[in-house]
Amino acid sequence: MAGYRRTERGAEVMMRDHVEVDGVDGQRLTDRLGRPVEDLRVSLTDRCNLRCRYCMPREIFGPDHAFLEREELLSFEELTRVLRVFVDLGVSKLRLTGGEPLLRRDLPDLIAMLAALDGVDDIALTTNGILLPRLAPELKEAGLERITVSLDALDDETFRAVADTPLSVQAVLAGVDAALAAGLTPVKVNAVLQRGVNDDQAEALAGWARDTGVTLRFIEFMDVGTTNGWVRDKVVPAAELVERIKARWPIEPVAPGRTGEVAERYRYLDGVGEVGIVASVTRPFCRTCNRARLSAIGELYTCLFAASGHDLRAVVRDGADDAALRDTIAAIWSARTDRASELRAEGGLSGPRVEMSYIGG
Ligand code: SAM
Ligand code: SF4
Ligand code: SF4
């Protein structure tokens, strides 16, 4: 029977037969559209050592930008506790991100704490790769299983323009090599193409990924936040990319591996791996969205395009026990109705929203 239960902290938790929040009887928490919470993306910092123009344009994220202070961030102990509660509610996949997660001091210590959590099937991390030559072996040893590196161009001039950095592509390629050598596999590489900026890099990136033994995923340029100058004309649609790749190397679609998988996958017919496309703009997948996001200061965002988050750090620092924390998270998730990308496709996405570098990709 559907109904509401008032929790110790006064939050209302929606209870239906199949959304009973009690992990003991094995029933799952779902939101108002029937979507479970299974995948949690955790931002470890809002800082970054690059200034990709589509994510942290230097005019906004310059020397005067007020980044989060260290004491504002959830400590590793606080974070591990919050994540344990999420796992209890159904999360089995964790992705560490940012900002640039490798900038977070003592990161291997956190990885080791998370690797010890029961119920986590998968711990991954998304990085720009610059610090991997130094950190990859330690991360692997601490228990990190696999890594995703972002790389938007193979040509130095384009890379420098996109990432607004004096570094060369070689810095990222060295990071990919370090990840492969450390066994942080499978290594995935994310590329965001923007029309007229780096869309000419698609084939070069695909060819390089095939030669290197990494899985490339193109992500459609999204209107996350309000500072990256997004216009629809800059989006390179998935359908166009598929045709371009196909023209060079024959491919065929791969059936989705699991519910909530966001990349449409294609297999190269010559047997040399796969390529994926995350078509967030042209083929939204909100219907199966099982992802929650936690900002570095412990705010829970139920959508990448949300205007604000729910302050779990306050709950933790107010001394709530695990049951109360669990009820709070369950109340937030069970009230979730987000479907921003579908709304965009229907022509109706507007209003303020959080920056990608703040809540992580
Ligand atoms: N700094 C790390 C990195 O670049 O991999 C992790 C954080 S970054 C925000 C995570 C992912 O989001 C990257 O792959 C990046 O390319 C992607 N991203 C950032 N802004 C984006 C946008 N406007 N549209 C699509 N993807 C974006
Ligand atoms: Fe930094 Fe990653 Fe954003 Fe680029 S995409 S500015 S590397 S957080
Ligand atoms: Fe999920 Fe929001 Fe993205 Fe839709 S727009 S897939 S609800 S994060």
Describe this structure in words.
With 361 residues, the protein is an alpha/beta fold. It has one domain (2-359): Aldolase class I (TIM Barrel), CATH 3.20.20. It is 29% helix and 18% strand. The chain contains eleven helices and 14 strands. The strands form two sheets. Strands 9-10-11-8-7-6-5-4-3-12-13-14 form a twelve-stranded mixed β-sheet. Strand 3 (39-43), helix 1 and strand 4 (93-97) form a beta-alpha-beta unit. It is globular, with a radius of gyration of 20 Å. The two termini are 37 Å apart. The relative contact order is 0.17. The chain binds S-adenosylmethionine and iron/sulfur cluster (2 copies). The site of one iron/sulfur cluster has 11 residues, from helix 10.
Q: Any descriptors?
A:
361 residues, alpha/beta, TIM Barrel, twelve-stranded mixed sheet, two-stranded antiparallel ribbon, 18% strand, binds S-adenosylmethionine, binds iron/sulfur cluster
Structural class: alpha/beta
> Which range best describes the helical content: under 10%, 10-25%, 25-40%, 40-55%, 55-70% or over 70%?
25-40%
* Name given to the CATH architecture: Alpha-Beta Barrel
Task: Give Rg in angstroms.
Answer: 20 Å
Biggest sheet architecture: 12 strands, mixed
Bound ligands, named by name, code or SMILES: S-adenosylmethionine, iron/sulfur cluster
| Parts with pLDDT < 50 across at least 5 consecutive residues | 1-26
Total individual domains: 1
Molecular shape: globular
Helix and strand sequence: EEEHEHEHEHHEHEHEEEEEEHHHH
Mean pLDDT: 90
Which CATH class? Alpha Beta
Number of helical runs?
Answer: 11
How many strands appear in the DSSP assignment?
A: 14
- Spatial strand order of the main sheet: 9-10-11-8-7-6-5-4-3-12-13-14
| N- to C-terminal distance | 37 Å
- What is the H level of CATH, i.e. the homologous superfamily? Aldolase class I
CATH topology: TIM Barrel
